[in-house]
């Protein structure tokens, strides 16, 4: 009856808690914590190499510090910048600067000078002389008046600059270089529309690319808007999409797919979620090669010792924008921290995501709900039913697996699982169950104390109710045989071959060697790259542990034939290993801290085995043994005496022998074993 009551109590809080957590996940309550974990995932993953097709020319703070005019720059200067970039034959030029209005007259004067010409603003367009009567007498406003002429020339200069910028874009387009011009969707009471470049610039032949951004609720820039619509309902695509399409020679469909994805006809597929996609940032500000606009404007001085930027621009997408804080186009991103990323770098990062097809796929919401439900039930089961140490260990394993899987999927597959909800399910589920368990156990102890106190003294009852668990560290001396092996030439091979291939080859090798070691009763202490440290004689005690080590070494040499095929495909040299064996006293046991221990061996015997392994290359031997081991195995193998040799790091010389073969055939390791002795 009591067991049924406890289960019923468990069900009372488990079902409501699970349902509550699932509802919170369904209503996206954990969205903001998940974004926090996404930022941490970017930072833990670290910067990655950007795509080589991307470059940035930026108007930077350093340009202003070196004497450049304040922003916005005159459009004639921007026209010259476009001409200079075009000289180096980029694949695409994308201008992340909005030029939606014509230059006004004020723009060509300083603020002090504007006060002088302001009275003439309303008459300058007529071009006619106007006489007005003032206290000082008759005053002429019209041609011939200095203020009027100044404003007229200013208007002409403003129009001239607008035309210069448009002509620069036209020259680039006529020269076969696509130019992307910045545009922005706008919305208001009249509906949705498009803020486009001024007419002369729009007619220059460039393509429109949207540059609008949308920050998440926490003010961080993570998502790219791939398209928008003009007032006629036609789709206009983002600057990054337009730049990639022009680079790949691809076309856009009339409208995105029903799913929101945008297939570039003849190019990449832009994968979206809810009409936007998470940018897979390669790093923070400065991740992409960025050249200062001032330097590019002076690159016609290369004949006088200046720098040629052809290598940085040729056949690349060149984004032109502003990174100076005064432009107000800096935003926080997952990587940036206290530093902000400029809009032009954000467009480059979005283009990188498209080019590398590294879109971050977000797990559907139903999967998050299922994960939360399963983990909540598992956490409550771990906290309530098993022994506390097992329950806690299981919870740690589940948490570690969850966190590792979440991070591994993000780094390895660009797949984003929800983490905040499942973590909350683990913490609250385990916490509620643990609180319930402690309460029930205290109640049971009180009942037991009350019952036992009727028959036993209080002190004995107290001792009976105690159940301490003490983690102890310890080790003991033992005579063992240590084997150390290493692959010849592995380091040079790993420098020439892709890491994935090296790991696959190494796994095949270690699998075969481990099978051999286990067959002879050896214990693998650790893998050190391509090196293997093994000991014989523990935890199972074998009286013939030196013989087992020698048999293992010879069989390891024999089994190399199984691995020669894959190895010879990658190397001109056959696969060879060096093995060294030494017998002596070591310290054996659980060594480490109270939180992390290893069952391992340490001591001079281990160090000497490692030193002898290094000598296998010097003597050209496959298997070397020390004099200590030789005394125990000379009856069962053929040996070549190499004499007394000096070993690095030791004062005394060591007797060294090469094992050539077994002196007789054997059916395998001796079956004689005894349990480990403490």
Largest sheet: number of strands, sense, barrel closure:
8 strands, mixed
Number of helices: 21
Query: Cα-atom Rg, whole angstroms?
Result: 38 Å
**Structural class by SSE content:** alpha/beta
Distance between the termini: 45 Å
Number of domains: 4
What oligomeric state do the depicted chains represent? single chain
What would the principal axes of the Cα set say about the shape? extended
Helix percentage: 40-55%
Strand content: 15-25%
Tally of DSSP β-strands = 27
Low-confidence stretches: 1-6, 109-115, 120-127, 301-305, 451-461, 467-473, 666-678
| Average pLDDT over all residues | 82
What's the SSE blueprint?
Elements: H1 2-26, H2 31-45, E1 54-59, H3 61-65, H4 75-86, E2 92-95, H5 111-117, E3 130-134, E4 137-141, H6 146-174, E5 179-188, E6 191-195, H7 199-202, E7 207-210, E8 223-224, E9 227-229, E10 235-237, H8 239-248, E11 262-263, E12 269-270, E13 277-278, E14 290-292, H9 293-297, H10 310-313, E15 317-322, E16 330-331, E17 341-342, H11 343-355, E18 361-362, H12 365-384, H13 388-413, E19 415-416, H14 420-452, H15 458-465, E20 474-487, H16 490-496, H17 499-519, E21 523-528, E22 531-536, H18 545-558, H19 564-570, E23 577-592, E24 597-602, H20 604-619, E25 623-626, H21 627-633, E26 637-645, E27 654-662
Parallel strand pairs: 1-14, 1-15, 2-5, 2-15, 5-7, 18-19, 23-25
Antiparallel strand pairs: 3-4, 5-6, 8-13, 9-10, 11-12, 16-17, 20-22, 20-23, 21-22, 23-24, 25-27, 26-27
Helix pairs in contact: 1-12, 1-14, 4-6, 8-11, 12-13, 12-14, 14-15, 17-18
């Amino acid at each position: 009856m009591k067991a049924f009551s406890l289960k019923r109590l468990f069900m009372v809080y488990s079902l409501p808690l699970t349902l509550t957590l699932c509802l919170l996940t369904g209503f996206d309550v954990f969205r903001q914590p998940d974004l926090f974990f996404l930022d941490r995932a970017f930072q833990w993953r670290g910067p990655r190499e950007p795509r080589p097709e991307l470059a940035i020319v930026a108007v930077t703070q350093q340009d202003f510090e070196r004497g450049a005019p304040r922003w916005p720059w005159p459009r004639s200067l921007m026209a010259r910048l476009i001409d200079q970039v075009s000289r180096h034959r980029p694949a695409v030029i994308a201008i992340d600067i909005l030029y939606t209005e014509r230059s006004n007259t004020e723009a060509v004067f300083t603020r002090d000078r504007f006060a002088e010409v302001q009275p003439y603003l309303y008459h300058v367009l007529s071009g006619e002389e106007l006489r007005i009567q003032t206290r000082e007498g008759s005053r002429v406003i019209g041609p011939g008046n200095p203020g009027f002429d100044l404003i007229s020339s200013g208007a002409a200069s403003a129009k001239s600059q607008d035309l210069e910028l448009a002509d620069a874009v036209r020259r680039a387009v006529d020269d076969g270089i696509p130019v992307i011009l910045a545009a922005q969707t706008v919305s208001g009471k009249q509906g949705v529309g498009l803020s486009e470049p001024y007419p002369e610039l729009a007619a220059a032949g460039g393509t429109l690319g949207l540059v609008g951004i949308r920050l998440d609720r926490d003010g961080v820039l993570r998502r790219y808007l791939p398209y928008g619509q003009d007032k006629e309902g036609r789709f206009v695509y983002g600057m990054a999409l337009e730049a990639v399409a022009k680079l790949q020679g691809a076309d856009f469909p009339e409208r995105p797919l029903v799913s929101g994805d945008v297939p570039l006809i003849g190019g990449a597929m832009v994968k979206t979620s809810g009409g936007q996609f998470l940018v897979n940032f390669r790093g923070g500000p400065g991740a992409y090669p960025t050249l200062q606009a001032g330097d590019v404007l002076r690159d016609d001085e290369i004949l006088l010792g200046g720098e040629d930027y052809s290598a940085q621009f040729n056949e690349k997408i060149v984004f032109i924008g502003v990174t100076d804080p005064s432009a107000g186009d800096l935003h926080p991103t997952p990587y940036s921290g206290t530093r902000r990323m400029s809009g032009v770098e954000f467009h480059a990062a979005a283009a990188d995501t498209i080019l590398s097809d590294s879109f971050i796929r977000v797990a559907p919401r139903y999967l998050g709900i299922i994960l939360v439900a399963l983990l909540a039930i598992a956490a409550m089961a771990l906290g309530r039913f098993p022994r506390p140490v097992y329950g806690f260990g299981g919870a740690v394993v589940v948490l570690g697996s969850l966190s590792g899987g979440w991070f591994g999927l993000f780094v390895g597959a660009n797949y984003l699982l929800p983490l905040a909800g499942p973590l909350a399910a683990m913490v609250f589920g385990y916490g509620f169950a643990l609180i319930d368990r402690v309460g029930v156990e205290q109640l049971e102890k009180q009942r037991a104390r009350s019952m036992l106190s009727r028959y036993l003294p209080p002190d004995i009852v107290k001792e009976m109710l105690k159940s301490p668990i003490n983690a102890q560290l310890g080790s003991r001396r033992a005579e063992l045989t240590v084997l150390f092996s290493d692959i010849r030439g592995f380091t040079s091979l790993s420098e020439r071959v892709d890491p994935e291939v090296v790991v696959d080859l190494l796994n095949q090798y270690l699998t075969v060697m481990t099978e051999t070691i286990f067959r002879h009763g050896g214990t693998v202490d650790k893998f050190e790259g391509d090196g293997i440290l093994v000991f014989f004689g523990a935890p199972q005690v074998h009286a013939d542990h030196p013989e087992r080590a020698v048999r293992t070494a010879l069989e390891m040499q024999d089994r190399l034939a199984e691995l020669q095929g894959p190895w010879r495909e990658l190397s001109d040299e056959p696969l060879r290993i060096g093995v060294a064996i030494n017998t002596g006293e070591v310290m054996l046991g659980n060594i480490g801290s109270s939180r992390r221990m290893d069952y391992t061996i340490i001591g001079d015997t281990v160090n000497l085995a490692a030193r002898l392994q290094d000598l296998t290359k010097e003597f050209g031997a496959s298997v070397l043994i020390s004099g200590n081991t030789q005394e125990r195995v000379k009856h069962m193998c053929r040996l070549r005496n190499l004499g007394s040799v000096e070993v690095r790091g030791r004062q005394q010389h060591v007797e060294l022998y090469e094992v050539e073969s077994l002196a007789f055939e054997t059916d395998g390791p001796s079956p004689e074993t005894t349990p480990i002795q403490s």
